[in-house]
Specification:
The chain has 28 helices and ten strands. By secondary structure, it is α/β, with parallel strands linked by helices. A five-stranded parallel beta sheet has the order 7-8-9-6-10, with helices on both faces. Strands 1-2-5 form a three-stranded antiparallel beta sheet, with helices on one face. Helix 16 packs parallel to helix 19 and helix 25 packs parallel to helix 27.
């Protein structure tokens, strides 16, 4: 019991520390005169006509460079007008470092007048001790040993409510998991006079403000505030790339910005280069001076979620392995193929744990900084070289399966899901280790774009495939010859015949030297060169090459081989151009017979060859040469339809 004697005024500075905020100062004056506190059972009654508890306030310890969250601040205030509890949570692509704690700080500072009874800042990791500490400093007497911790905490809230009128705000910082929330929930105020804000990485079942990463203008705005507008805008294009590399993550931007501010002679380009080389261990991502967050580095912010997973668990193993994928939605079929020995249920459980802790987004992709963090974990917990070999093997197999010279819309859409990961593989994996495989992936990417008529991007990948093949296998290797043929084919499709010819000639020379003049690959090179000469109008040069290719193909592959059928079709097209109908027609029929036997009726080869035959018959009829055509059933049927149109 507090006696009737006058209690002198005490000024107390209370420093509350949490994992996500720097020391926050609360100045609380406690006064009391002739107060009688009657405490009994689970209920606390305060006769406080003469008691006055000074209003607790949150000191201005927020960052002076707070930018880009005005809409979120307004939305939080709107939610708290109707809800007693609101969570500031990591959004779909969120994780540690999106600025949840700082948003809560800024809200408390900007809306101080909306909470006349004051603000308490609590850490989820020590909520009981902090609340009881507040109670003692406000003058709440001991209630005896029979009260539980929950009762004592609720007594503190009641004492605060009775001492000061008006709405009050309680911020509980760093509720990492659902289990954390269940642990602190009994210690939260439930009275309508209180508003509670929780910062969390979980999507708790309450009204939430989901906080994601910055947009590019916000990222640049933060850098300008910290580093200086003139310095950032001087290297604006590089600064934009820096923001992109950091994934527009607020914590990463602040760390890097303060690093740049402390090094006025260091360019933005230099810092970006260091980050790309050193990743998360770069000094720019380490805490170098006082900040609003207590994370010592970006990796430390991610470590909070990582350690929430069971050490050595399937979830940690999967998370580390996912670092090999590109920054796009990860195809589930690719993960299953890479981890084929896993039970399906184990894979599902591990994936769910990663999503629940925001180590993987619900959009099934990784944030770039998290990917760098998980890549470090891959080296720590697994045989990284074996994992990379398995990943490259699966990616290459998918590229060879899905990318063809001709693809329908459905095939293109299916392959498109894999393209970002194929592209990333060529950029991230070592050419010295996986050179040949990376070259094949690049070649298949070229086919993917070629099939869509996108020759320019196809050219880029074809050139890369050739460069890798020459470096890894040598300038005279048969696979280098294949790369030469592919690149020449793209040049031909783009009408760049003069660039294509020397590549075709070089590919043919390699094949003849390394494989022999009668090898099927030599026949393919002959056919390709003949097609170029036909496109250039050099018909006399084209015909002997086509004939030689056919002779090799028939001898070594057989007349019913699809490649031979292609060469039948190509020679038939050449003969049609010279009105050599009686020579062209049987070649079209031979090609169609093979294609219809081996391919679906709607395959492009079937359609192309059939259209070639129709064009031949129409041309012969128009020129009065239909009598030169054979009595083949298909020819007669087409000719009858052509005549009926007349």
């Amino acid at each position: 019991m507090i006696d009737d004697r006058l209690i002198h005024v005490h000024s107390i500075s209370l420093f509350i520390m949490s994992d996500n905020t720097s020391a926050t100062v609360y100045n609380t004056d406690i006064r009391g005169e002739k107060n009688t506190n009657i405490i009994g059972g689970d209920h606390v009654h305060y006769h406080n006509e003469q008691r006055s508890i000074a209003r607790p306030t949150i000191d201005r310890t927020g960052t002076e460079t707070f930018v880009g969250r005005e809409d979120e601040l307004a939305e939080l205030h709107k939610l708290l007008a109707v809800e007693s509890q609101v969570a500031i949570a990591a959004a779909t692509s969120g994780m540690g470092g999106v600025g949840k704690t700082e948003l809560a700080v800024q809200y408390a500072l900007r809306h101080d007048d909306d909470y006349p009874a004051g603000v308490w800042w609590l850490s989820a990791r020590d909520i009981v001790g902090q609340v009881l500490s507040y109670g003692v400093r406000m003058g709440l007497p001991e209630t005896g040993t029979l009260s539980t911790e929950v009762q004592k905490v609720q007594e503190c809230y009641a004492f605060w409510k009775q001492g000061i009128t008006g709405r009050r705000l309680v911020i509980v910082d760093d509720v990492v998991t659902v289990a954390d929330y269940e642990a602190v929930r009994p210690y939260l105020p439930t009275d309508g006079a209180f508003r509670v804000v929780l910062t969390t990485r979980e999507r708790l079942q309450m009204r939430r403000l989901d906080l994601g990463v910055f947009r590019l203008p916000e990222s640049l705005g933060l850098l300008r505030e910290i580093v200086g507008t003139e310095r950032v805008d001087r290297e604006l294009a590089i600064a934009e790339k820096l923001c992109e590399w950091l994934g527009n993550l607020p914590l990463a931007l602040e760390l890097v910005g303060r690093y740049l501010a402390a090094k006025p002679r260091t360019s933005v380009a230099t810092v970006l280069e260091r980050l790309r080389d050193q990743k998360l261990v770069a000094k720019a991502l380490l805490r170098g001076q006082p900040m609003t967050t207590t994370h010592e580095s970006l990796a430390a912010a991610f470590e909070v979620s990582w350690v929430a997973l069971e050490a050595g668990s399937k979830a940690q193993e999967l998370g580390a392995f996912l670092s090999l994928f590109g920054l796009a939605a990860i195809p589930a079929v690719a993960v299953r193929a890479c981890l084929a020995e896993w039970e399906e249920e184990d894979l599902e459980d591990a994936w769910d744990q990663l999503v629940n802790l925001h180590l993987v987004g619900t959009d099934e992709q990784l944030h770039p900084m998290l990917r760098a963090f998980l890549a470090v974990k891959l080296d720590e917990i697994a045989d990284a070289s074996e994992a990379r070999e398995r990943y490259v093997e699966v990616m290459l197999g998918a590229a060879q399966e899905k990318c063809k010279q001709t693809m329908d819309r459905e095939q293109v859409q299916d392959a498109a899901l894999w393209v970002p990961h194929w592209v990333d593989l060529t950029e991230q994996q070592s050419v010295d280790v996986f050179g040949e495989s990376i070259g094949f992936v690049a070649a298949n990417l070229s086919l993917y774009y070629y099939a869509q008529g996108l020759f320019e991007p196809g050219l880029q990948w074809s050139e890369l495939a050739l460069a890798i093949s020459e470096k890894q296998l040598g300038p005279d290797h048969p696979d280098t010859g294949t790369s030469l043929n592919n690149l020449a084919g793209l040049y031909e499709s783009m009408g760049r015949y003069e660039a294509a010819e020397p590549l075709y000639l070089r590919a043919l020379a390699i094949s003849e030297k390394q494989l022999g003049p009668d090898h099927p690959q030599t026949a393919g090179s002959l056919n390709n060169l003949a097609g170029l000469y036909r496109s250039m109008g050099r018909y006399n040069d084209a015909e002997p090459l086509y004939l030689r290719a056919l002779a090799i193909g028939i001898q070594h592959l057989g007349e019913d081989h699809p490649d031979v059928a292609v060469w039948y079709n190509n020679l038939a097209g050449l003969y049609t151009q010279f009105d050599r109908y009686e020579e062209a027609e049987p070649l079209y029929h031979k090609a169609l017979t093979v294609f219809l036997d081996r391919l679906p009726q709607d395959h492009p080869y079937v359609k192309g060859t059939f259209n070639g035959l129709v064009n031949l018959i129409i041309t012969a009829h128009t020129n009065g040469q239909a009598d030169r055509l054979s009595e083949h059933t298909m020819t007669r049927s087409i000719l009858q339809q052509v005549r009926s149109v007349d």
